[in-house]
TrEMBL record:
<dbReference type="GO" id="GO:0016020">
    <property type="term" value="C:membrane"/>
</dbReference>
<dbReference type="Pfam" id="PF01124">
    <property type="entry name" value="MAPEG"/>
</dbReference>
<feature type="transmembrane region" description="Helical">
    <location>
        <begin position="119"/>
        <end position="142"/>
    </location>
</feature>
<dbReference type="InterPro" id="IPR001129">
    <property type="entry name" value="Membr-assoc_MAPEG"/>
</dbReference>
<protein>
    <submittedName>
        <fullName>MAPEG family protein</fullName>
    </submittedName>
</protein>
<keyword id="KW-0472">Membrane</keyword>
<dbReference type="InterPro" id="IPR023352">
    <property type="entry name" value="MAPEG-like_dom_sf"/>
</dbReference>
<keyword id="KW-0812">Transmembrane</keyword>
<keyword id="KW-1133">Transmembrane helix</keyword>
<feature type="transmembrane region" description="Helical">
    <location>
        <begin position="73"/>
        <end position="99"/>
    </location>
</feature>
Amino acid sequence: MHSGILAPVALLALWSMVMLAWTLTTRMGALKKMGVDISKVRGTKPNMLDGVLPDKTMWVAHNYNHLMEQPTAFYAVALALAIMGMGDGLNAWLAWAYVGLRIVHSLVQATTNIVGIRFMLFVLSSLCLVALALHALLGALLN
């Protein structure tokens, strides 16, 4: 059985891979420009490159990390809704809105990084996710 919510799930997963490729290319380019031979670098700590690599390079990397955080809850909720047969209609629209807002958030963070815009996009996408989670909980409890 096909569920409408699965297409936005797949798109967000694919978008995460786009951001991964963008992160790798910008980081490798910045490291090369700095003359860093990554074959000689041993173990790093989270955020070790902040303040070392250009901010614009790190904005892309930070966004990729963000796509590994809250969207994991989106994947779980969306798949639960699909399994319960509740992945169409309003829930599919909320999922598309969530994914669209996250993609725009990525583009803002990776290019201009205007925090006020990013925050607004984050709040709007979070509201979509809260609605989806509530629908999933109600579906699980009432069915």
